[in-house]
Design goal:
With 439 residues, the protein is α/β, with parallel strands linked by helices. 31% of the residues lie in helices and 28% in strands. The protein is built from 14 helices and 25 strands. The strands form eight sheets. The protein has a six-stranded mixed sheet with strand order 5-2-1-9-22-21. A four-stranded parallel sheet has the order 13-12-11-17, covered by helices on one side. α3 runs parallel beside α13. The structure holds flavin-adenine dinucleotide. The site of flavin-adenine dinucleotide has 36 residues, from α3, β2, α4, α10 and α13.
Length: 439
């Protein structure tokens, strides 16, 4: 459980002002975090949603649609929304940054939820409080949807300086913001040699994203006549989950530009000398998009809601019910989007949006004192595999639940044959889902 001491620590305040003497003296900084309630107590039920990404935004809107009387508060640390989906085509200038950017005010004003632009710095589940630098907010139900964080410790253990160096110089760009802008600059300024993309091991955000990214980086090299190669280092035996669609693009559209290396588990990353040692050999690079392993975002760790394996070690992902998304340790908390585990669901924006609608129904029913039998989410994922002409492939997945075995099974439908029609459908999908969250 996150304690007051942890809260002060995370806000950068030492233990000196904790008030251990009979007459505590508070420093100026302590006064800032000697939290007052930020909002008046709710008249009815209040749902606080931490994280305004694909999942959190959807929960906020659909809760208000289910029941306008629920007091819905969305807390998000970014001032505006930039989409990771379609960011790969944007790398190759197939769309503008405007296409990816959206404002938080429009949906909050239209659907009547409260948007607070602040970072969540603490969670006290026993008091049902969420802390921001501006004060605390009390909740009846809490939704945690903070997305992912990078696990550089898997590469560098305790060496935080090396992690920082890597993140600054070879950003993963799997979390939107400056990293995406930096990656685009690197790709467009690249002159010659090998550009490496690492595919993370285990569960990670958007399984096809590294392969789509390889195509779009290669598209820029091809267009700019750069004498460069894009080397994709993948720990898996083969491209997952769409196989031949990407392979065909690598071998037909970007032959001689993309080199795909399977079974390349990373043994050592040396960002200073620009060498990566893998189980498939050592690779030197001129520049790189180094994507480390992923974990559930920090809020899940803060709230002590990470699943443990048989030995009691954290798995890195949320411990939630696979059908209701309710935290196993706390019936008042729901965990949604990329953070979840124990399901065959991929970590995708479409999936976060689909789950968000289910969670909104579950919470609204709970508040109304009604039973609700949760449905299953679905997923659609387009990947742009050619930039000229624009061509894409797609995977659609529905899921089936076997009550007896308590098992969710994916039923995928894959179109691996790239086409211009699917490229058009990619942008239609994006427009429709942005509209769903923002308009
Ligand atoms: C290159 C790339 C391409 C992709 N392409 C596709 C695609 O084509 N289709 C698709 O469906 N998916 C795609 N994805 C995946 C998609 O982006 C993610 O699955 C989706 O963003 C997950 O939604 P989420 O709400 O769980 O997390 P996010 O969208 O990351 O939202 C989490 C939010 O929480 C906020 N937050 C975190 N911590 C705090 C805090 N302490 N206080 C306040 N706010 C906080 C973050 O700022 C963020 O806005 C792609 C991803 C990448 C990287």
């Amino acid at each position: 459980m996150f304690t007051r001491r942890d809260l002060l620590k995370s806000a950068g305040i030492g233990a000196i002002a904790l008030g251990v003497s009979s007459q505590p003296v508070f420093s100026a900084a302590e006064k800032v975090v000697k939290m007052e309630a930020m909002l008046p107590p709710p008249k009815g039920n209040r749902v606080v949603i931490c994280g305004g990404g694909w999942a959190g935004l959807t929960v906020a809107k659909y809760l208000k649609k289910e029941n306008p009387n629920i007091d819905v508060v969305l807390i998000e640390k970014r001032p505006n929304f930039i989409s990771c989906p379609i960011s790969n085509p944007w790398l190759a200038d197939l769309v503008s940054l405007d296409f990816l950017s959206h404002d938080y005010n429009q949906p909050a004003a239209k659907y009547g939820y409260r948007f607070i632009n602040a970072a969540v710095i603490g969670i006290e589940r026993d008091k049902k409080r969420v802390y921001t630098p501006h004060g605390f907010i009390e909740y009846n139900y809490l939704v945690l949807a903070p997305g992912i964080r990078y696990n550089y410790a898997a590469w560098f253990k305790e060496d935080k300086e090396m992690a920082r160096f890597t993140r600054m110089n070879f950003p993963a760009a799997f979390i939107p913001g400056s990293e995406l802008l930096a990656l685009k600059r690197k790709v467009h300024e690249f002159e010659e040699g090998d550009f490496i993309i690492t595919v993370p091991p285990g569960a990670y955000r958007c399984p096809p994203a590294p392969y789509e990214r390889a195509c779009m980086v290669a598209e820029v090299f091809k267009r700019n006549k750069v004498k460069g190669r894009v080397i994709v280092l993948d720990p898996k035996d083969d491209i997952a989950p769409k196989g031949p669609g990407f392979r065909a693009a690598f071998e037909q559209v970007y032959l001689g530009i993309i080199e795909y290396v399977p079974k390349a588990s990373i043994k050592e990353v040396d960002p200073v000398n620009k060498v990566i040692k893998t189980t498939a050999g050592d690779f030197k690079f001129v520049d790189a998009n180094l994507v480390p392993p992923h974990q559930a975002g920090a809020l899940l760790w803060m709230a002590d809601l990470i699943a443990k394996d048989k030995e009691g070690k954290p798995t890195g992902w949320a411990d939630q019910d696979p059908l209701t998304f309710q935290a196993k340790a706390d019936p008042n908390v729901f965990l949604v989007g990329d953070v979840i585990s124990g399901t065959p669901y991929p970590k995708s924006g479409h999936m976060g949006n689909s789950q968000g609608k289910i969670v909104a129904k579950i919470i609204a029913s709970r508040i109304a004192g009604k039973e609700y039998k949760p449905t299953l989410p679905d997923n659609t994922c387009y990947s742009m595999v050619n930039g000229s002409p624009q061509e894409a492939i797609v995977i659609n997945v529905n899921y089936e639940y076997n009550e007896k075995e308590k098992k969710i099974t994916p039923k995928p439908k894959v179109i691996n044959e790239r086409s211009e029609a699917l490229a058009k459908a990619t942008y239609e999908w994006a427009r429709a889902i942005y509209r769903d969250m923002f308009a």
